[in-house]
Write a structure and sequence with these properties.
Number of strands: 7
Low-confidence stretches: 12-19
Strand order of the largest sheet: 6-3-5-4-7
Radius of gyration: 50 Å
Order of helices and strands: EEHHHHHHHEHEEHHEEHH
Distance between the termini: 150 Å
Helix content: 25-40%
Length: 475
């Protein structure tokens, strides 16, 4: 059988009974390309000849959108209804501000920029969330003060002792001038001497100075007290200070990363160690392991040496260390130090160990004074700064066991049981104008008259009288 098969029809063998013809897929015809039509002016037109309006591309950047909004809402300056310079009766010497006195034209209606109020609300919420804790603490403190004030008993002001009233000298008033400054340019003689019964004639006045204009003198502020100091800055708590420090460090690190990303800074080299060698370098570590190991060990040694050098550079010199220790132990010499005096009374200061502690500690703390030892009473007077006095007071009142120091010597004297317990008390402590002693020394006197003479020679005999007349319930 000879026949030609048409490509549009399926093969005839598939038309036999018992077999279904397969689905035939027809290829879609390609769509025709759009035709560009232009008129004589070069504008695009459609098939009917109408001009096609092509929308212009608009920028979607936030910067350009804000710029367009800003240009659309321009603030117009007010214009004056009347220009005072064109008014022939306007005198510029009167000091009138034309922009404030004359009424400007009513400005056109201004629309609020979109998102302004929401932005302000977000700022207020942020401030409240950031400083809400401190404000709540201040509110609680105020409530506690009010409750304490209500709980206090009512005091009759008539029962309060009134101190002497301090009389302040008033500032002397200026003398009355012979002629007022506003009348001086109008008088020919320059004084009021030619007036008769308070009347002036035309001959006594400079008539050419008198015009139809009213001269208003410039107002002068009255003398008053100085303005109060500005409010103190907001004091942050420890938690808020740590939070601000963390935020500053994060912002600084973020800025550094941004500069590295832009290429302004060189990125740091990876810190390669023997433990993370394969993780950092990967396949490069297997090319020349010996050379790579030497480089890693040399880099580690260089980092360690740089760390040691930084510590050495930060280390204080012997002079700086000595100055730091002196600042810690003694008062600042740049500030005028105040001289504080402490007077101690001791029952028995005959023990050599306690006498050595009293003497050496006074000299090491750079204090002046004296320790006078007599029969039955000993007085120690020290002069120095605030820190030295505080340390010496701890030595005399807490560190030395006065009762034990006497017992070591009195073990043999078992018969003397009526002797009072040895102790040290602070008789007086206060501030004086200048020191009375040049150094610290120890005196042993047989009589109280000789002991009092030691203080009298220094000009402070009342120190001995205070110590002798001091009475303590347990002394």
């Amino acid at each position: 059988m000879g026949f030609r098969q048409d490509p549009e029809f399926p093969p005839l063998i598939n038309m036999f009974p018992g077999q279904m013809p397969p689905e035939v897929t027809i290829q879609p015809k390609p769509a025709r390309a759009p035709v560009l039509r232009l008129d004589a002016l070069g504008r695009e037109i459609d098939e009917q000849g109408n001009v096609v309006n092509v929308p212009k591309p608009s920028s979607t950047l936030k910067v350009n959108i804000n710029k367009q909004k800003k240009e659309s809402f321009q603030i117009l300056k007010p214009e004056l209804d009347v220009d005072p310079d064109k008014n022939p009766h306007f005198d510029p010497r009167m000091g009138i501000d034309k922009n404030k006195i004359l009424r400007p034209k009513r400005m056109s209606f201004q629309f609020v920029e979109e998102g302004k109020w929401s932005h302000d609300a977000e700022l207020i919420k942020l401030k409240q969330s950031q400083y809400g804790e401190s404000r709540a603490k201040e509110l609680r403190a105020k409530q506690m003060q009010l409750a304490k004030a209500k709980a206090e008993p009512v005091i009759n002001p008539n029962l309060i002792e009134v101190a002497e009233r301090v009389i302040t000298k008033e500032k002397p008033k200026e003398p009355i001038p012979d002629v007022e400054w506003w009348d001086a340019p109008l008088l020919r003689s320059g004084t009021y001497g030619g007036m008769v019964d308070g009347d002036l004639t035309d001959d006594m006045l400079k008539m050419e100075k008198i015009t139809i204009y009213v001269e208003h003198p410039r107002p002068i502020e009255p003398p008053a007290e100085p303005a109060p100091p500005p409010p103190q800055p907001l004091k942050l708590t420890k938690k808020e200070q740590k939070k601000l420090r963390t935020q500053r460090r994060l912002a600084r690190e973020k800025e550094r990363q941004e500069m590295i990303r832009q290429g302004l800074l060189e990125p740091p080299k990876p810190k390669v160690k023997m433990s993370n060698l394969m993780k950092v370098l990967g396949s490069e570590a297997t090319q020349d392991p010996t050379k790579l190991e030497m480089e890693i060990r040399s880099a580690a040694a260089e980092r360690e040496q740089a760390h040691i050098d930084r510590n050495i550079a930060r280390k204080l010199t012997p002079d700086e260390r000595r100055e730091k220790k002196e600042r810690k132990l003694f008062d600042d010499p740049n500030i005028a130090p105040e001289t504080i005096v402490s007077i101690y009374r001791v029952n028995d200061l005959s023990h050599p160990q306690t006498r050595f502690k009293v003497d050496v500690n006074a000299q090491e703390n750079r204090m002046t004074g004296c320790a006078v030892i007599s029969e039955g009473i000993s007085v120690v007077v020290v002069e120095g700064g605030k820190k030295s006095i505080k340390r010496y007071g701890k030595l005399m009142l807490r560190r030395i066991d006065w009762a034990a120091a006497v017992k070591k010597e009195d073990d043999e004297d078992e018969d003397d049981e009526d002797k009072p317990l040895n102790k040290c008390v602070l008789v007086w402590q206060g501030t004086v104008a200048k020191s009375s002693f040049h150094r610290f020394f120890v005196h042993e006197c047989r009589t109280e008259a000789a002991a009092r003479k030691v203080f009298a020679d220094a000009g402070v005999p009342h120190y001995w009288d205070l110590a002798v007349n001091f009475k303590d319930d347990e002394f």
